[in-house]
User: What shape does this take?
Amino acid sequence: MLVAVPINLHMTLADEIAVQTSITREPLSVVASIKPLALIAKAALGSRADVTYLRQDNQSPHTGGISLSVLETMSKADMVVYVGDEFEPLIAKALKKMHIPLGVSSTQVIASAEISHRSVDRTYDSHVWLSPQKANLLAKELQRLGGIAPTAVITEEQFVIFHEQLESLSDRAYVTHHDMMSHFTQAFGLHKGIALRDATGKVKGARSQHRLRVLSRQQSASCVFVEPQYKQKDARVLARALDLPLREIDPMAGGQELTSDGYYNFLVTFIGQFTACFD
Assistant: This one.
């Protein structure tokens, strides 16, 4: 936790954090709303932070409220890293009521770094952590706020290796359980996929479901991805109708250990799950 030290009145909040951590050398208490963001925070901050996360691996980030235990965990944090106000409004609301030194909206950090003017709403894919480039942007900001030198959580060499593993699949189609692949596909130049549910995990209407089946046949989809956070009945019905195999893919990093190289290992696993669709 941060402790009181003399602060120049002209310092920014980030400067204050840097001074305090450099003097006390105590690790920052960082709480992430979801595990993938915790993996990026741990990779970015290393031993300079004790990192935890709020949602369990099998919980969808699109549903559920905030318990008293979650509020208590947040209240003890030096820094809370979350997806964004539009996607986690309850966390955003709680942050405004708490005196937490730093609340970091991942989508806002990335949009600012990219000078993006996209109109953000909850129907837009919020899975920014699936892009190594965007993870590096978030990591750089966390390192700035933590008062440490910037270091990429995914190096250029690692990205090139990932790209080489995926480039032969650039035009291959597939069906995802919900709309969550846009940041990943933009990063690696892949087909954006055909989503069974929208970006919030809600089931689409009958007309959209019919169009989805038509598109899947027209584009020769190779598989239907299912996610452990969702019930799979609708995906299984679709896979059976299209005579396609089911493949599991986990954007929430279930089973991944929270270590300094955890984000890299998560991407290795995720890419392996993705490529299994085309075996």
About this structure: The mean pLDDT is 86.
